[in-house]
Design brief:
9-stranded antiparallel beta sheet, about 290 residues, mainly beta, 7-stranded antiparallel beta sheet
């Protein structure tokens, strides 16, 4: 059984652009080695937006050296990037953007959601790439709710949606560079579940909503993250109230992490090169909108 090694609590909210009220749960500057291959977890919401005719979100900005993974619970997010990727994701959908050698993208509330307003909640995860793959071409995966397999837990305890990796006999649709598990878990009040993550992998459990007990002790509230030891292969969870959780698992990348802002590489020289390439337009530009 995996035990908890540390617990991280959601910090104060800050705005990313004017569309995303975010708590940063962890970042690569303080948890990159402990939580490798995961670099950052931002939790946006829950919030309620009034209807508007304005564009809410974040305008064009660059990334290099990693992937961004966005999972929406409420609302809609529209994405465009310099590699030609894009689309709109809504509740239950995921976008998996590979920045790798470099990309420029923008993220806004969809026009339809902005016009109607309503509840908004999402998470964004940054996933590191090994040095050999940081020069790969950028790519984009739209993973719709309908393509994500769901596994019912025994006794009607809840279900596990498998975005990446394998749970029981179901394989998630996300294509990843290194072995990664990303599961969207729902548990009913009073339900108990045992989730199996391969031993030696990084593992963490994030509480999006509700209240849970992990193992025999610690109780986690909404926006808490439990970092689990790599030994053992089972995570025991009891929902003290109806809960929605994200389980992260991944094979650690044992390489230096050097980052600044939107770039995460292996050396300072590579960071300087990324800034120079962005200023020179070598990471691409967004096409004009019709």
């Amino acid at each position: 059984m995996k035990n908890i090694t540390s617990i991280r609590h959601g910090g104060p909210r800050h705005w990313v652009g004017d569309g995303f009220p975010v708590q940063t749960i962890f970042g690569y500057t303080d948890a990159g080695a402990e939580l490798s291959p995961f670099l950052l977890l931002d939790y946006a919401g829950p919030a309620v937006f009034a209807p508007t005719a304005q564009k809410r979100g974040v305008g064009p900005h660059p990334h290099r050296g990693f992937e961004t993974v966005t999972l929406v619970y409420d609302g809609e997010v529209a994405h465009r990037d310099s590699a030609g990727g894009g689309g709109t994701i809504g509740p239950g959908d995921v976008q998996w953007m590979t920045a790798a050698s470099g990309i420029v993208h923008e993220e806004f509330h969809s026009r339809a959601f902005a016009e109607t307003g309503g509840p908004f909640e999402m998470i964004q995860l940054w996933v590191n790439l090994p040095a050999k793959d940081k020069s790969a071409p950028p790519a984009y995966q739209t993973i719709t709710r309908a393509t994500i397999p769901a596994v019912e837990l025994p006794g009607g305890a809840g279900l596990v949606r498998v975005v990446a990796g394998r749970f029981q006999d179901q394989q998630g649709p996300a294509r990843t560079f290194t072995p990664i598990d990303l599961w969207d878990v729902r548990l009913g009040a009073g339900a108990k579940a045992e989730l199996r993550i391969p031993s030696a992998r990084t593992a963490a459990l994030f509480v999006v909503g509700g209240r849970v007990r992990v193992g025999t002790g610690a109780v986690l509230e909404a926006a808490d993250l439990a970092v689990l030891e790599r030994d053992g292969d089972l995570v025991s969870v009891e929902a003290l109230a109806e809960a929605k959780l994200i389980l992260l698992g991944g094979e650690p990348i044992d390489e230096p992490i050097v980052g600044e802002g939107p770039f995460v590489m292996n050396t300072r020289a590579e960071i300087d090169e990324a800034f120079a390439d962005y200023r020179a337009g070598r990471l691409g530009r967004l096409p004009a909108q019709a």
